[in-house]
Design the sequence.
């Protein structure tokens, strides 16, 4: 299996978990030292790949390494996990940051899938995309991140129908609050972005930012381990008939239910009350 974004968090947890199960894991990392750390935590089967999903040259080189290793056996699994989280008011997020969000979380996933799909077809393997409950239900300040995850939902649905003719299963994982470094980095980036915007705009959105930060901080205390996601990835890889979608975490299941049954205005009122948003 190939896993992108395996340096930390969910990707690293998946790499170590699948390695322990006996899979040959090609773990995509952006820094050589991250690959060395993974090898120390895993077995001799774990093979780091220097892979940046926004850099086609590194994707091509990773494909060469994997192809030479698997030869005619093909590739059993591709786990598109790499991602970043850009947060902030839609009005205030710089366009280059918004583009980077989509470049990593959407275009990068497609680029990797296009490159490795022939090897997946060869083995009648499986593709697993790492989505989020934010791809089904968003909140204020989460517009850029949610946009990328909503897009990944659509790509997953289209791809699943396109490749079923070769016996390839495509699933998407939709975690809720998971304890990973992505949110710490996102908070730092958001603070830097906030400091850079003009004072008037920062003042206008101050109540919303404060409300969301408070709720996100509380949710982070209830975040579950990334190991829980790794076990769901195992199920998607090994189940005779895998689900098309896997919700992970109680919060994800509740938010998915809300998105499915509540009218938009009711959801808006509920979130406004929970977050204590100005209205």
Sequence:
């Amino acid at each position: 299996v190939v896993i992108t974004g395996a340096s930390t968090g969910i990707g690293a947890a998946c790499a170590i978990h699948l390695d322990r199960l006996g899979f040959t894991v090609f773990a995509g990392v952006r820094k050589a030292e991250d690959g060395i750390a993974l090898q120390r935590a895993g077995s001799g089967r774990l093979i780091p790949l220097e892979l940046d999903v926004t850099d086609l040259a590194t994707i091509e080189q990773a494909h060469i390494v994997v192809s030479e290793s698997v030869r005619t056996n093909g590739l059993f699994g591709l786990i598109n996990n790499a991602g970043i989280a850009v947060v902030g008011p839609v009005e205030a997020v710089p366009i280059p940051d918004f583009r980077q969000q989509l470049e990593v979380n959407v275009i990068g996933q497609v680029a990797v899938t296009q490159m490795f799909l022939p090897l997946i077809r060869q083995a009648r393997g499986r593709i697993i995309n790492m989505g989020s409950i934010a791809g089904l239900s968003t909140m204020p300040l989460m517009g850029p991140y949610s946009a990328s995850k909503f897009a990944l939902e659509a790509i997953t649905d289209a791809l699943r129908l396109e490749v079923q003719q070769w016996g390839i299963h495509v699933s998407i994982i939709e975690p809720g609050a998971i304890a990973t470094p992505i949110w710490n980095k996102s908070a730092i980036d958001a603070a830097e972005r906030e400091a850079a915007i003009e004072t008037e705009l920062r003042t206008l959105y101050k109540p919303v930012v404060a409300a969301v930060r408070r709720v996100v901080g509380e949710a982070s205390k209830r975040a579950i381990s990334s190991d829980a996601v790794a076990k769901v990835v195992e199920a998607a890889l090994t189940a005779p008939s895998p689900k098309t979608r896997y919700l992970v975490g109680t919060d994800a299941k509740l938010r998915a239910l809300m998105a499915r049954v509540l009218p938009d205005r009711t959801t808006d009122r509920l979130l406004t009350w929970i977050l204590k948003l100005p209205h």
Notes: The first strand starts at residue 2 and ends at 3. The chain is about 60% helix and 10% strand. The longest helix spans residues 95-123.
